[in-house]
Structure to design on (628 residues):
């Protein structure tokens, strides 16, 4: 009975998307209500399944549902099936719970958009695809959801595609994600070639028999896939541009759900990475690089959404780092993923609330003093801010500090470098997030006289308030008695986990909190009296580079785009001059010979008679030669 409900998790939002897209403009008056209802209903099913899991023994909590035989070609046998276990239920509740709150928020935020029902159809499509991604019982089933999420992301980022820059942002996200998707494709091929199966259970069962080369190759390809979907170095350049989409899209896709898909993929594939230490180390290094990369970019952004996007990149870096620390870090990576879903989604919705009250202005230098005019937005955003910088007892303190602790306790040069990067990232995060809060809600007003800031309607601030509660409480509940770690242990921990304690949790927390306070103090001293409504031009070379996203687009253009264009131009030239030239040459020769022969067809009988005579003489001569 319980397993038969799994399909409804996906079917409900998928049906909502299909109905809204099929009904078209006829659903303008009720489309937003249907979209929200189907998402809420999916959350209800997920909550019921969660309660059922709680009532079963730990070893009996995972359930599967076989839908149908999908691929049956020789030895390649794949069923379309769903798997709900302790890991996937965390994502189900996050996706549908936060997704429903964002649907409610969007009812008011998108109320004046004439295509609102289409927006809700795309939101439903995204929810359905993301659920398929985390519920698929094999890499191939996951891949279908993976591609569906990419499509929905493209549609939502480019929702206002009448603006060329928005359409270009959607295309950029789609193309860069396709690079990551190729990594997942190769990983699936390696899995089948090595294990003869692409199911999670099958790969896990045979992983300890496989060669280290195959496992490392598969792990690296999975990392490439995760880097593309989760905006990790070196495939992170699309995330800032993706802020072109409506703000609820940023909250749903680029804070709470889609960008966490890479973290899910690596955690789900823990049996591959645990058996491939080199690939696992590569994961940790990429996470450390990205958490610093995103934090540094965030220090220079004046666009509030792009500052939060850089923050997302950095926080996902912490999660990736956690997964790269092995069995000791998987649960804490997922904990940070869940707490981040609360506080970052809340802050993105808060940014949308500010834009709503400031006539869609996104430049923080044109804000200032908005707490007086938007108190609910300021308070809920503030709770998210305290959570992300890791102030106790807010959620980020429990989740991010545990990743820092595990990294520092990795020992040797690895512990020093990875733990040091995580600590430095905490300090920079405190600096740039304090900067965002001060420039937006504190200080003197810097907006134009035409602006009339005001608080958002209840349908917008109510989801923000609920997410703020999660920003305060979720970390405590997940960490109390190691609740989340014990919950996930059957999926991510195999046997006894050896842990070093070079630094105690208390020492780690004091180090992190000290650096956080330093970052906050520097930001307060620098921005507390900010009065300019434009960014200064006489800045350091580092600030100029950070404003340009540490030259990531310049690098991609110089190393990949321009050479790619040159190669393409060369191939086009070869095609036109050699291949097409040869074809055109044959045609020209045929036409030329035809024209020459056509001159002999003059219509005179004497010419034809002479030609016949000459032909007969030549024929007789040839026969004579042969006979002789």
């Amino acid at each position: 009975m319980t397993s038969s409900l799994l399909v409804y998790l996906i079917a409900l939002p998928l049906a909502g998307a299909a109905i809204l897209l099929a009904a078209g403009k006829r659903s303008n008056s009720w489309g937003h209500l249907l979209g929200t209802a189907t998402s809420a209903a999916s959350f209800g099913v997920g909550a019921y399944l969660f309660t059922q899991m709680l009532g079963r023994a730990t070893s009996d909590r995972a359930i599967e549902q076989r839908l149908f035989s999908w691929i049956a070609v020789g030895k390649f046998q794949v069923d379309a099936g769903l798997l709900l276990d302790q890991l996937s239920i965390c994502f189900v509740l996050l996706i549908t719970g936060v997704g429903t709150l964002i649907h409610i928020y969007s009812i008011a935020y998108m109320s004046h958009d004439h295509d609102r029902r289409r927006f809700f159809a795309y939101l439903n499509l995204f929810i359905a695809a993301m659920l398929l991604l985390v519920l698929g019982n094999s890499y191939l089933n996951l891949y279908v959801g993976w591609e569906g999420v990419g499509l929905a992301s493209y549609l939502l980022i480019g929702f206002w595609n009448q603006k060329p820059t928005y359409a270009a942002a959607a295309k950029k996200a789609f193309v860069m994600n396709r690079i990551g998707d190729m990594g997942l494709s190769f990983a699936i091929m390696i899995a089948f070639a090595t294990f003869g199966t692409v199911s999670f259970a099958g790969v896990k069962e045979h992983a300890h028999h496989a060669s280290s080369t195959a496992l490392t190759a598969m792990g690296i390809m999975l990392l490439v896939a995760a880097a593309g979907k989760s905006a990790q170095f070196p495939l992170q350049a699309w995330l800032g541009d993706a802020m072109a989409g409506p703000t609820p899209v940023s909250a749903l896709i680029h804070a709470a759900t889609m960008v966490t898909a890479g973290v899910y993929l690596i955690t789900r594939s823990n049996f591959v990475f645990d058996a491939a230490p080199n690939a696992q180390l590569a994961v940790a290094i990429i996470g450390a690089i990205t958490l610093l990369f995103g934090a540094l970019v965030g220090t220079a952004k004046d666009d509030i959404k792009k500052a939060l996007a850089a923050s997302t990149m950095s926080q996902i870096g912490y999660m990736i780092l956690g997964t790269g620390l092995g069995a000791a870090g998987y649960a804490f990576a997922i904990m940070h993923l869940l707490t981040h879903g609360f506080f970052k989604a809340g802050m993105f919705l808060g940014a949308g609330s500010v834009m709503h009250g400031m006539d869609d202005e996104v430049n923080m230098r044109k804000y200032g003093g908005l707490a007086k005019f938007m108190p609910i937005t300021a308070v809920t955003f503030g709770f998210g801010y305290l959570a992300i910088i890791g102030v106790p007892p807010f959620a980020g303190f429990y989740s991010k500090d545990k990743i820092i602790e595990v990294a520092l306790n990795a020992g040797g040069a690895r512990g020093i470098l990875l733990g040091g990067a995580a600590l430095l990232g905490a300090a920079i995060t405190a600096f740039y997030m304090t900067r965002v809060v001060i420039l937006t809600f504190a200080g003197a007003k810097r907006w134009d006289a035409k602006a009339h800031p005001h608080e958002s309607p209840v349908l917008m601030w109510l989801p923000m308030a609920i997410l703020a509660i999660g920003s305060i409480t979720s970390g405590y509940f997940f960490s109390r008695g190691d609740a989340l770690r014990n919950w996930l242990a059957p999926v991510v921990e195999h046997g006894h986990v050896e842990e070093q304690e070079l630094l105690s949790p208390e020492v780690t927390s004091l180090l992190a909190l000290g650096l956080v306070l330093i970052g906050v103090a520097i930001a307060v001293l620098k921005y507390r009296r900010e009065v300019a409504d434009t960014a200064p031009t006489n800045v350091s070379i580092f600030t100029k580079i950070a404003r340009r996203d540490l030259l990531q687009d310049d690098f991609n253009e110089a190393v990949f785009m321009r050479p790619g264009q040159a190669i393409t131009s060369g191939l086009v030239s070869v095609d036109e001059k050699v291949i097409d030239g040869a074809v055109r040459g044959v045609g020209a020769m045929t036409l030329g010979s035809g024209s020459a022969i056509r001159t002999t067809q003059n219509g005179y009988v004497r010419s034809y008679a002479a030609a016949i005579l000459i032909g007969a003489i030549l024929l007789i001569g040839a026969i004579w030669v042969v006979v002789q």
User: Anything to note?
Assistant: The chain has a mean pLDDT of 91. The CA atoms of residues 65 and 110 lie 37 Å apart. The first strand starts at residue 63 and ends at 73. The longest helix spans residues 552-598.
